[in-house]
Request: fold
Amino acid sequence: MTIEDCRIIHLPKVQDPRGNLTFIEGKKHVPFDIKRAYYLYDVPGGAERGGHAHQQLEQLIIAMSGSFDVVLDDGHGQWRFHLNRSYYGLYISSMVWRELDNFSSGSVCMVLASTYYEESDYYRNYDEFIKAVRKIDNGSPVS
Reply:
């Protein structure tokens, strides 16, 4: 997987004078069944979140309120996305390092995940992640 597989997904937006509504359906609006949802909030100014990659897990990240940046790195290049609309989601494939920063005051980041929490799926050390990427590039299985 590469950051070229990652993309902004436009979610349905039902406009109504009483307030707008957006909904998300697994395997319809996102390319995976949704197994887990969590959200980040009250992130202090200047703080960073993320700083990891996943072997198998896929995610959709949404700025439910406020804004923040997501920096993606596949070991070959980096892309920065600025999220600030609740009807846009950033799809992140497996084997992509992610860091979140530049949180605005009062921002809420919701994450939809393709798998249940499993610590063994994480790369929390960037050098180990890069070693795994190199193995994949050379056609070797990652263990």
User: Anything to note?
Assistant: DSSP finds one helix and ten strands in the chain.
